Amino acid sequence: MEQAKKLKNIEELDNLRLLLKDDVFKEDVSRIRACCGTACMATGAAKVIRNIEASASETGQKVDIVRTGCQGLCQKGPVMKIEPFGYFFQKVNQADAKDIVTTTLATGYPVRKLLYRANFMTEPFELMETLPFYKKQLRIALRNNGRIDPNNIYHFISVGGYAALGKALFTMTPDQVLGEVDKANLRAKSGSIQKVINAKSGL
Fold it and tell me: 201 to each of 150, 193, 194, 195, how far by Cα in Å?
């Protein structure tokens, strides 16, 4: 995407967010959300991604690779989610890259050896949401972890990044901002935030 112009108001921020949402979360696109958390990187995620990119280039297969934060299930890393099918692959290694490109991305079928199994006697789980580890999770603060690239500012904006800052700068008075901070019970190590609030309140 082209470099964004300097934003002048909250409306321009909102418009940029809408534009980015359409770009970042396009449906029916071959996309791999590859975990690049500490455990997955330590077990070779970067090399796996490079091999997938190389294999895709050789075969002419278009794929969007999103390097996400930790997706959980670290002991099974490297892990990744393959879209638009929703397949969850685990313990992926460099040699699996070609199969992922030629089998899953090209035909829509999963690479069965990369699917998670509770044990060798059971059928594999194809979708991340059906795995026992994820099934009962309700992520709130980390709801976008595994979806976006934390190093990509456009991804951050697309999921609501800077919305609170935009509201504070363009729609609130300084007193209203301090009031929100006071209600949130935020504390800095130096106590500087509370000092400002107390000074404004005459305490």
Answer: 38, 12, 10, 10
